[in-house]
Amino acid sequence: MNRRSLVSISLGALLCSILAVAGCGGGGGSDGGGTDNPSQPPPSGGGSCSGGDTLLYVVSSLGAGVPTGDGRVPGFDVDQRVSAASDTQTCNQPDFVSPPPESRAGVDNQLGPLVASFNFQDEVETLFDAAIEDGSLLLLVEVSHVQSVGDDDCVTVSFLNGFFPPGIGDPIIGADGQLAPGQLIDIDESFLDASGTPLYRVTNARITAGVLDTGHTSITPTYTVGGTAAPITFNQLAVRLDGDHARDGVIGGSFEVETVAAIIGPELGSLEPFVLQALRSKGDLERDAGGTCHSLSAGLMFSAVSAVAGEVR
Question: Where are the domains of the chain?
Answer without folding.
Answer: 3-14+49-312
